[in-house]
Amino acid sequence: MHILNKIYQQLLSHYGPQHWWPGETQFEVTIGAILAQNVSWTNAAKAIENLKKHNLLQPQKLSGKKAEEIAPLIKSSGYYNQKADAIAAFLRWFERYDYSFELLQKVPTERLREELLALPRIGHETADSILLYTLERRIFVVDAYTKRIFTRIGLLTGKEKYNDVQHMFHAHFAGTTRDYNEFHALIVKHGKDVCAKKPRCGRCCIIRWCVGNALTPIL
Ligand code: SF4
Q: How far apart are CA 54 and CA 60, in angstroms?
């Protein structure tokens, strides 16, 4: 069994299921994935609540707003002008599918990924978060926590590009879509609480697999 599978099992038994991604509808999950770029979930959630308060968390309603009108409503999520542009671009694209997640479900993952990545201000992490968490495609979401933890563990050099890191997970992590969902959430949890910028290796549940742990003296 590849070490990635062992690490996943250990993180899951240590932290338990993380119940990601928060959101009552597929549209809410999608907008949440865009708003959560580079900010804490708490700030993204405030923007979601504000859109809900204005009764705009439905694609047909939100698409009636220009990016300049969306921006002030999502201020708490940071980078709000760029995120408003991203939301407006997503909605223009989604209109081609009649704002229907059912229609999106009929499109192959690779094609959807290409189309999402062609949109302005939608990067790999956001596109893959939409594919995994909204559309339940078996695809691994890579973020800064993933790169940091697995570089310290010794499975990455730290120089790999997004698709290289994703390929490693696709090649060696044998989980279901549900496990892909959970693994990413657990990585975020571990990266925030333990393998932070300053790692707390004394509290780490996966230290046995980590060559870069701060408790092993360098000879
Ligand atoms: S042992 Fe330390 S460096 Fe390695 S994964 Fe755990 S917290 Fe991170």
A: 14
